[in-house]
Amino acid sequence: MGGTIASVWALVLLCILRAKKKNPTLVKDIRDKTLKSSRKENCLSEIAVTPDVIIVGAGVAGSALAYALGKDGRQVHVIERDLNEPDRIVGELLQPGGYLKLIELGLDDCVEEIDAEQVFGYAIYKDGKSTKLSYPLQSFESNIAGRSFHNGRFIQRMREKAVTLPNVRLEQGTVTSLLEEKGTVKGVLYKTRTGQELTANAPLTIVCDGCFSNLRRKLCKPKVDIPSHFVALVLENCNLPYENHGHVVLADPSPILFYRISSTEIRCLVDVPGQKVPSISNGEMAHHLKTVIPSELYPAFISATEKGNIRTMPNRSMPASPYPTPGALLLGDAFNMRHPLTGGGMTVALSDIVLLRNLLRPLNSLKDASALCKYLESFYTLRKPMASTINTLAGALYKVFSASTNRARNEMRQACFDYLSLGGVFSNGPISLLSGLNPRPLSLVLHFFAVAIFGVGRLIIPFPSPKSIWTSARLITAASGIIFPIVKAEGIRQMFFPLTMASYYRAPPSY
């Protein structure tokens, strides 16, 4: 009897030890849930039903879209190149407007348990002076604010939540091409983790494979511009002058950003204009950074540079210029990018996802690719208020905030700082645009030229001189040269007169 009891206890102990060894990380947990989600009820190794939608990429856009469509009952197959936690140096700040979209999607709990920080506005520094700009959140509930966090932790939380839905399958694989038949995309060709080449078919394929997308060329005009690079460090165990605020230092030659990504870490992003960045290996980069950092954060900054963990990445900008293609759609950074100075990328992506989900909701079937393509032309028009406001502001602010040898441009830079320092409507208006709470392109253009006129006033009041009048004229010209090319790229008619677009009135196809 004693031997039997001992054997039973030994078996129990063995099971416990094995369970501990198999305690999965978040990545393994996602993979396990991915396998389970594809074996529901019938214990099959593949989804028994052909998916309604294939999503290429499971970053912020792909994961959020998978959850949104899966929650609406769509069969979704997501193919992601790498299910390990991403390690990126952008996509770490979500504006309040983006957080509101996260709530609409039912994903707001994904910023919990990742040591995320609330963000209530910005502080801007120039020549030793500073001004604080707070988000206009008075009419919202107390939990509404921006959020800053580790991008990879946020993405893993969304992936984990997406695969809790039985009709969402998340698979690791590399999509190599779109499958086309007579001009209609029918699915994708991809390689699994083991190198096996497979095809996946669905009525609608949505490409969300990020800024390095290798599929976008067939779906849009990929006019990618790289105006600068970000050099990134993490400062540890130090405080920002204005906690729970992003900090923008108008340094020479271009801005430096600081914001918390956890309770103990501050992200530092130094913008380096042009295509070439100083060398990291020979110490040139560390020397460059030491010359532009503000004194308040200098000790923590020196400590970070001495550790040598300096990373760089190009800042890409690409206006949305889609080729409407039956059976396929672009979304996220694969579709539209702007300079990351204003942290608006995730807000645009989440806004697009809410819009696309709402457009697809009335449709029982997605199988008529031509009719669906015609209907989804409305997506490109309806997204413009939010997308074009944030895109234009990002491009314009980057150019205004960068130092220049042109005196008129530098006057514009000083005028912008002084204008925002006035407070009231002069700061609330621009910060509400930046936050995604007031997506109105016309309001943006009015504030932009109000800054220019304010700059002219600084130059000619109280006593204008020929030199100040000439500089004023050049300032207005410089302001026009900044804003109008960006507006033109966004599409003047779609941006300011969307009601004149036929696509604005597209009704859901009836079948």
UniProtKB/TrEMBL annotation:
GO terms for biological process: response to hormone; sterol biosynthetic process. The keyword Hydrolase does not apply. It is a multi-pass membrane protein. Keywords: FAD, Flavoprotein, Membrane, Oxidoreductase, Signal, Transmembrane, Transmembrane helix. Pathway: Terpene metabolism; lanosterol biosynthesis; lanosterol from farnesyl diphosphate: step 2/3. Pfam families: DAO, SE. Residues 52-82 form the FAD dependent oxidoreductase domain. Its EC number is 1.14.14.17. Residues 202-470 form the Squalene epoxidase domain. It comes from the Eukaryota. It is found in: Membrane. One of its GO terms (molecular function) is squalene monooxygenase activity. Residues 1-21 form the signal peptide. GO terms for cellular component: endoplasmic reticulum; membrane. InterPro entries: FAD-dep_OxRdtase, FAD/NAD-bd_sf, Squalene_epoxidase, Squalene_monox. It catalyses: squalene + reduced [NADPH--hemoprotein reductase] + O2 = (S)-2,3-epoxysqualene + oxidized [NADPH--hemoprotein reductase] + H2O + H(+). Its cofactor is FAD. Belongs to the squalene monooxygenase family. Catalyzes the stereospecific oxidation of squalene to (S)-2,3-epoxysqualene, and is considered to be a rate-limiting enzyme in steroid biosynthesis. This is Squalene monooxygenase. It comes from Jatropha curcas (Barbados nut).
